[in-house]
Amino acid sequence: MRSAALRRITTVAMAATLGLGLAACGGAGGAQDTVTWRLAETHPGDYPTTKADEWFAEELEKRSDGRITVDVYPDAQLGEERDVLEQMQLGSVELNRTNANLVGEFVDSWKAFGVPYAFESEEHFWNFLEGDGGQAKLDELSEMGAVGLAYYDSGARSIYSNGQPVEEPEDLAGRNIRVQPGSITAEVVRELGASATTMDFGEVYSSIETGVIDGAENNLPSYVSTRHYEVADNITLNEHQRVPEVLMISQTAMDQLSEEDQQLVRDVARESTEKQRELWAEEVEQSRATLEEAGVTITELDDTSAFEEAVADLKGRYSEQYAEFMDAVEAAKQ
Ligand code: GTR
């Protein structure tokens, strides 16, 4: 495992080097003839989000007759998600696929995605994302100089750890659970009864292995692809949050294109959602099979009410703070 400090230095150096290549060819002012962009992805090449990024890149290159080239950098090659969000603002990364929880540090209203048990089901979640509520959230990304292009599925997040299986919130007492930077999940985890440590994704495996933390929370595909199940072998499907993945582009990059090409970028991104959702559904099934084969304890709950009750006050507070979001979530129930 690379150390955090080393990773950061590598990231900065890489960003600086890549930054030199920023000036795309093309005429002075206005739309450029051709552009080459970088797309940052934290997951490995065979993960559903990465495959959707690749699909987006290939389709865009084809349909723009080569005017738009997107190079996908998987495996956090351009840095951890939080660092990439900063690099986007500095102009050294053009496109980014990130999890909505991370965005909260840059656009406060995006913390709303972390409200626990906001969505009743996958159907409700997608109804929201594909409706006016979802579009309004994408529009809010202008606050960080970005254009929201599309959502990808990320299922529901659940808690995993080593030690005895967790059947009720009380069982979480004394466990230290890693959460993503920028989100309200630390508070959610604390209300559930555990302690919480904020940490970059790439540091989680070694931190569980060395006992710095006891576990983390995520969806099944991430739990499997990171191999966290090797060091934290029980997961409880308490599903405290449904947090989408988002594909975004910096406004500066978008402004390099003609109106038509901007529309093409939007269209192809939207279409890539369909692709990603298909891949996602397959991946969830495969992940489950991998976990069962590995002997991981998957604790299914008859209902999540004990967990929901534990976070009810917090949910009430944040629902008031993000009332507009929660109204749109409510409206998406039909
Ligand atoms: C995953 C998400 C990643 C990353 C990760 C994390 O579900 O796809 O982008 O945010 O969670 O927990 O850091």
Q: Examine the coordinates and then state which fold CATH places here, giving the name of the CATH topology of the largest domain.
A: D-Maltodextrin-Binding Protein, domain 2
Tally the helices.
14
Q: What proportion of the residues form beta strands (DSSP E)? A: 15-25%
First and last CA, distance = 47 Å
Q: In this structure, how is the largest beta sheet organized? A: 6 strands, mixed
Return the average pLDDT rounded to an integer.
93
The proportion of residues forming helix, as a percent range, comes to 40-55%
CATH fourth-tier homologous superfamily of the largest domain: Bacterial extracellular solute-binding protein, family 7
Architecture of the largest domain in CATH? 3-Layer(aba) Sandwich
Number of E-type strands: 11
Query: How many whole angstroms does the radius of gyration measure?
Result: 20 Å
Please give the CATH class of the largest domain. Alpha Beta
Please write the string of helix (H) and strand (E) elements: HEHEHEHHHEEEHEHEHEEHHEHHH
Strand numbers in spatial order across the main sheet:
7-6-8-5-9-11
Number of domains: 2
What structural class do helix, strand and pairing data support? Answer: alpha/beta
Bound molecules: beta-D-galactopyranuronic acid
Shape: globular
Q: Give unreliable regions as ranges.
A: 1-28
